[in-house]
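Here is one chain, start to finish.
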Amino acid sequence: MSVRSERAPLDTGMASLNLSAAIPASPPTAALANHVEATINAAQTADSSLADANTLSTNHPEHPLKRTVVATIRSSLGELCLRKQKATWAPSPEALRAILQQRKFTSLSGTAESVGDLKSVVLHNMTLTSISSDFSIPVGMKITGVDNDTYSLTGEAFSHIASPNSTSATPRKLQEDDVALAYEFSRKFPGYTADNLTEKGIHEVQQRRFCLIAADHPIVSAISENAERLQMGDISMMPEGLVKIGTDLYQTILPMVQQQVSSQIKVRDLSAAKLSIAPSDATSWSEARTELLSEAKAKLRSELETELSTAAGNESMESIRAKFTTREAKIEHDIDSNVHTFSATIDLEYNFLAK
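Its structure:
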């Protein structure tokens, strides 16, 4: 049994793929509109072996996938200054697929495959359940898929900012998206995203200047809804439920449909998900290091001046200076080499717009 989309405009608050505002009007022709209507009706009621989007189903909006991810970054301040990647927790593409994709059993023997397009994630919410930082400065973090709306002293925006030497187990919602439109779009146009509109359900015949398009493709819906305004050439139904349109019409409609889908359907690209940290009150790790050294050495210099004021004789003063020089070198070494740990536990609820 095939799962088919409906041609009717979306009815849950999302605008339909009506492009009339962007398409120049041509003299309305009732016969042309009727012809298009009949052609698309016939295509959408035919069995389609080539319209592979029909074989896809979407996860239920009330039952999202759930994952808990623990991100840990361990590094010294010296390493963070020299190697930017040390401030980033970034699983490999293989690890991300293992973490986020859904396993689907393909046989009774237990054979399974991982499904889910990580570039089209419908993110229900992301919650920071616990966080720990032993840095002596406030540390901001940025997470893929989270809007940065927590601001620091420098005006930099972060997903969240951890206080110095702090631990918290109070859950904080980092992101919550309105997923209704994405699920409605997925129900009517299963398997389609703004990124795959040029590939899925499209069969270009460039030598003959026409395209064969699956009947459930969003472009077909756009053509149907704007038939009277389009200056169309040939449009006809082909076998296997495909709609044939001219290349010029395809190239005119496609950018408009892509723009409307991308602007209305909220999806997150988690194919390269990562968490990175940075000093929230400094512009770089090097600047943060300079400030920490300055603070520590200012205290040391104050102690040196106090001891020098009470010293008796040149030999005693030289000894005091040598001792403080050693202490200064040790302070710099400790600030550069002490290993710090930043850890965050994150809960995700999500689904996929496409498999």
